[in-house]
Amino acid sequence: MKLSITTFEGAEAGSVELSDEIFALEPRADILQRVVRWQLAKRQAGTHKTLGRSEINRTKKKLYKQKGTGGARHGAASAPQFRGGGRAFGPVVRSHAHDLPKKVRALGLKHALSAKAKEQQLIVVDQATLSEAKTKALKETFSKRGLANVLIVDGAAVDANFALAARNIPNVDVLPVQGINVYDILRRDSLVLTKAAVEALEARFK
Fold this sequence. Notes:
Largest sheet: 6 strands, mixed
CATH topology of the largest domain: Ribosomal Protein L4, Chain: A
Structural class: alpha/beta
CATH class of the largest domain: Alpha Beta
CATH architecture of the largest domain: 3-Layer(aba) Sandwich
Number of domains: 2
Number of strands: 6
Strand order of the largest sheet: 2-1-3-6-4-5
Radius of gyration: 27 Å
Order of helices and strands: EEHHHEHEHEHEH
């Protein structure tokens, strides 16, 4: 598929031929859901923790004698049924990550890119650079292009001035091409790729 290349100001800067194997697939929601779920599970902290009965700092002495009281038979006061006792089957520190085949991860990225192309929310620009890091000027440029909720993906390295100017604008993410991922693509309305990013993606999936 052929797509026009523009500048951030909206001027024409040529065209680019995008690979149909990356940008023209029929998006599958099931693959996208699997990859997003894998991403979010992997980054979940898993640091939740409660104290079990063996970790409660209470006396282990038997509360009262086994027989003759007319009540239930109890041992230590750290048992879960007592106020101040341990939590039964409470959460423990663990990893929520699960495996996902590399081929599915790669396919998920292709489908996310294809989804943006199909919805005409994919923009290719010649470069994402600024002579000076001015947030106000960049915000005005985005407003003129109608980019209110956008992910911008550059080549191997992001221009320092551009990154500084964009980092204080809400709903705008700037990533190098190595950091491109399905979740960030889908959570923004528009996807902006530089020429360098397109070349790097096509080389990656070749």
